[in-house]
């Protein structure tokens, strides 16, 4: 099944979990032509409030929060506290004024299972090496046994040759059973040095990244129909760097004297601008990919929790023929990419850490204890795609974590890159 096909399966399954009244209204849509008014969509965002000791603060009220969109204060229309997965103190938003002649569905009754979380597990096996496969298997098994609870809907997809496509399902045993299929297939530094470099950079690094990002993007897009449930993405990857070990690849490796990175073996003019362009644009291109992915997550109010399976990073194995300074630079770039994906969506990056058990407990808490704020946007510019969010609380020594922006979806569907 392709990533696009899996997205449709996920969307249909999630739609099936919706109340019957909502499904009936959705199915009846082709028989009429409803008219929607700009600015009537309720914007909801999950917010985590912590005190100075990092503990969740459960006694805030609607008046404790201030929400600004593009610097303009917004009026909160709905407010709820979710504590331990249960919803309290819910203030429902009044329905927006409808254009004359539109038929609104009746208020749906709450269904069993609606309060559970939606957890997507993304295994980026295209970017971790085979030696980390056992670590990722143990991590996924731990996730299935400790993080997933009854009532949680879970789906798991891999980006590469592991071929994992599970869910959506309420059976966490399926996730645990699939852990044995995980196989990392990233290129080692030694392999990178021996590959031909093209205008797309060393090897097929950019193609691999495009496949990974497209898979995650389609997975997130399938959450459009899910409302009033905590949506979390466990993004298991060592991160990204479009120009790794540049000096070693150019043959100036200070350890091995360029033995495995002599550019003359391919007779390529390294000063040719067509071959230098990927290096010059590497960081900018990577940022563009990651930004679009975080916008997709924020659009559906999903929080990304990135997990680096490499754990606590030390010096590199001498058998990789790498200079230690280049290895540290590579670590810094890849870990920064994971921090960006998490922080821009209000999540946490688990990097440079071997205590995955404690990290999963924190993720469990942050997806079980939170506030849900809702408002109708008063943004005067309906064509503005990305809207910045700034959420503040008026209690001293309390900080909040939430998504920093949300975006409107652009028309059309991006093409899916072909896997090699």
Q: Provide the structure class.
A: alpha+beta
Q: CATH-wise, what's the superfamily of the largest domain? A: von Willebrand factor, type A domain
Structural domain count: 2
CATH architecture of the largest domain: 3-Layer(aba) Sandwich
Rg result: 23 Å
Give the rounded overall mean pLDDT: 79
- For the secondary structure, the number of strands is 17
Percent of sequence in beta strands:
15-25%
Percent of residues in helices: 25-40%
Note the gap between the termini: 16 Å
Biggest sheet descriptor: 6 strands, mixed
Order of helices and strands: HHEEEEEEHEEHHEEHEHHEHEHEEEE
Here the CATH topology of the largest domain equals Rossmann fold
CATH class of the largest domain: Alpha Beta
Strands ordered across the widest β-sheet: 8-7-6-11-12-13
Outline: globular
Query: Total helix count?
Result: 10
């Amino acid at each position: 099944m392709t990533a696009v096909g899996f997205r449709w399966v996920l969307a249909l399954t999630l739609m099936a979990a919706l109340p019957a009244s909502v499904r009936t209204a959705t199915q009846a849509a082709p028989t009429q032509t409803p008219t929607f008014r700009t600015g009537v969509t309720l914007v909801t965002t999950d917010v985590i409030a912590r005190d100075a000791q990092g503990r969740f603060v459960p006694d805030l009220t609607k008046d404790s929060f201030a929400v600004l969109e593009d610097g303009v204060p917004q009026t909160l229309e709905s407010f709820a506290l979710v504590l331990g997965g249960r919803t309290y103190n819910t203030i429902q938003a009044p329905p927006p004024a409808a254009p004359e002649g539109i038929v609104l569905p009746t208020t749906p009754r709450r269904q069993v299972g609606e309060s559970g979380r939606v957890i997507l597990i993304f295994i980026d096996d295209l970017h971790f090496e085979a030696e980390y496969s056992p670590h990722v298997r143990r991590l996924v098994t731990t996730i299935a046994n400790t993080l997933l609870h009854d009532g949680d809907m879970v789906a798991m997809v891999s980006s590469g040759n592991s071929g994992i496509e599970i869910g959506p399902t309420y059976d966490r045993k399926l996730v645990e059973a699939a852990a044995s299929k995980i196989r990392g297939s990233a290129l080692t530094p030694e392999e990178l040095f021996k590959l031909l470099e093209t205008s797309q950079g060393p090897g097929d690094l950019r193609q691999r990244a495009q496949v990974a990002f497209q898979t995650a993007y389609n997975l997130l897009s399938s959450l459009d129909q899910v409302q009033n449930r905590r949506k979390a993405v466990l993004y298991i990857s060592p991160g990204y760097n479009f120009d790794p070990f540049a000096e070693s690849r150019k043959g100036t490796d200070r350890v091995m004297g360029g033995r495995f990175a002599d550019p003359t073996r391919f007779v390529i003019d390294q000063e040719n601008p067509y071959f230098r362009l990927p290096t010059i644009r590497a960081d900018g291109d990577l940022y563009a990919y990651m930004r679009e992915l975080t916008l997709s997550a924020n659009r559906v109010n999903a929080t990304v929790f990135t997990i680096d399976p490499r754990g606590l990073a030390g010096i590199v194995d001498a058998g990789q023929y790498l200079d230690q300074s280049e290895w540290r630079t590579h670590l810094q770039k890849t870990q920064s990419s994971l921090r960006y994906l998490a922080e821009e969506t209000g999540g946490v990056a688990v990097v440079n850490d071997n205590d995955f058990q404690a990290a999963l407990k924190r993720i469990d808490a942050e997806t079980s204890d939170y506030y849900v704020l809702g408002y109708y946007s008063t943004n005067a510019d309906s064509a503005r795609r990305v809207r910045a969010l700034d959420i503040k609380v008026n209690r001293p020594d309390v900080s909040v974590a939430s998504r920093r922006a949300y975006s409107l979806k652009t028309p059309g569907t991006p093409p899916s890159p072909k896997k090699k």
